[in-house]
Design a protein that fits this description.
The protein is α+β, with helices and mostly antiparallel strands. It has 9 helices and 8 strands. It has 2 domains: 52 residues; 226 residues, no CATH class. Helix content is 64%, strand content 12%. The strands form 3 sheets. The chain has a 3-stranded antiparallel sheet with strand order 4-3-8, with no helix packed on it. A hairpin with a 2-residue loop joins β6 and β7. α5 runs antiparallel to α9 and α6 packs antiparallel against α8. It starts with a helix and ends with a helix.
């Protein structure tokens, strides 16, 4: 890793630790004035940051009376209700304190979810925090790899430099150490674009989730479900006769065992992507919860000493989470390539034996 990259990383971590220390000092200063009403609720804070939301919460400001006022970026709310399309900004709810009336539809927000007051069914197409974060991640990837592609055109035949060198190292690693060993040299080019996109898309979203106020994208079960479902589709549509024959007529198996083993093999088709979904979801969400739990200690104990200790713990966890962010993207890509390879590799073996 380049020196400037390490410098940037340490600057971010230092800024995070300084912020935590400032929060702990503020908590200690407000120790005497805070009563039972303003008691800090770590569970509420953690769930608020881990779950999706209709606005991008930044911070809370206190007025002269000690009342907190959330500062957030409103996001578009898009609702299809009873044949009508209603579009408005999330700020219209005033952080869940007011209802929004659109024609005959009355919307209210309860516990981070939008409901229609008359019980009408809602099709929610809103751009939530996770959706916006995912779009930002996709935009970053487009900009980065467009820049890298242009650099290859301009510096044709020359040694790669800067970002081009860094991303080439990762691309070659995924190709030579993950895709080719599992899928084979004959067919790896068919699946390499998907697997590279999978790796970088998960990695960049994991990294964005580590930024303060960032979205917990990979900690959203719908996100990991979609990625696992794509792997499921590609694996089974790529499956050859040997793959499906092994599922519905396992070789060398007595006929009386088929009613037992065939259902097991069919279940196995779905348990593989299910494991992909849960692994990514659980690891990323668990890391966020640990970091937020350590941060909560400064507010629970309202001590500067505890603030220092919490800051040290958060810094260590941030280093670990930077590693986990790349590791989980690697594992998801590795297992996806392994499942695809299992669906096609037997055909290649049979073809080699025929020759």
């Amino acid at each position: 890793m380049k020196t400037y990259t390490l410098r940037f990383l340490f600057s971010c971590l230092f800024a995070l630790s300084f912020s935590l220390l400032s929060l702990s000092v503020r908590a200690e200063d407000g120790n005497e004035s805070s009563g039972e009403e303003g008691k800090f609720n770590p569970k509420e804070m953690i769930m608020h940051h881990v779950m999706d939301s209709y606005d991008w919460h930044l911070l809370d400001l206190k007025d002269a009376n000690g009342e907190e006022h959330p500062v957030s970026i409103p996001l578009p709310v898009i609702l299809f209700t009873d044949g009508s399309l209603d579009v408005f900004m999330s700020s219209a709810f005033h952080h869940g304190k007011e209802q929004v009336i659109k024609g005959n539809n009355v919307y209210r927000m309860e516990h981070g979810h939008i409901h229609e007051a008359n019980g009408k069914k809602i099709i929610d197409l809103s751009l939530t925090k996770n959706v916006v974060s995912m779009l930002i991640g996709a935009l970053i990837l487009v900009l980065v790899f467009t820049s890298v592609a242009k650099a290859y055109v301009k510096q044709s035949g020359q040694a790669p430099k800067g970002a081009q060198n860094f991303f080439e190292m990762l691309i070659v690693f995924i190709r030579d150490e993950v895709v080719i060993p599992n899928i084979g040299e004959k067919k790896y080019k068919t699946y390499l674009p998907y697997l590279l996109t999978l790796f970088f898309f998960i990695w960049i979203n994991n990294m964005l989730g580590l930024i303060p106020t960032g979205a917990n994208m990979s900690g959203n079960i719908a996100f990991t479900l979609t990625l696992a479902f794509l792997t499921l589709l590609i694996t089974n549509f790529s499956g050859n006769k040997a793959y499906w024959g092994h599922i519905f007529l396992p070789p060398g198996l007595p006929l009386w065992m088929l009613p037992i083993m065939v259902p097991v093999e069919i279940i196995g088709i779905f348990t593989k992507p299910f494991a992909l979904m849960i692994r990514l979801f659980a690891n990323i969400t668990g890391g966020h919860i640990i970091i937020l739990s350590l941060t909560s200690f400064a507010f629970i104990f309202k001590s500067m000493t505890v603030g220092f200790a919490a800051s040290a713990g958060v810094i260590m966890m941030m280093f670990l989470e930077l590693f986990v962010a790349a590791l989980q993207a690697y594992i998801f890509t590795l297992l996806s390539s392994l499942f695809i390879g299992m669906a096609i590799v037997e055909h290649e073996h049979g073809h080699a034996e025929h020759h």
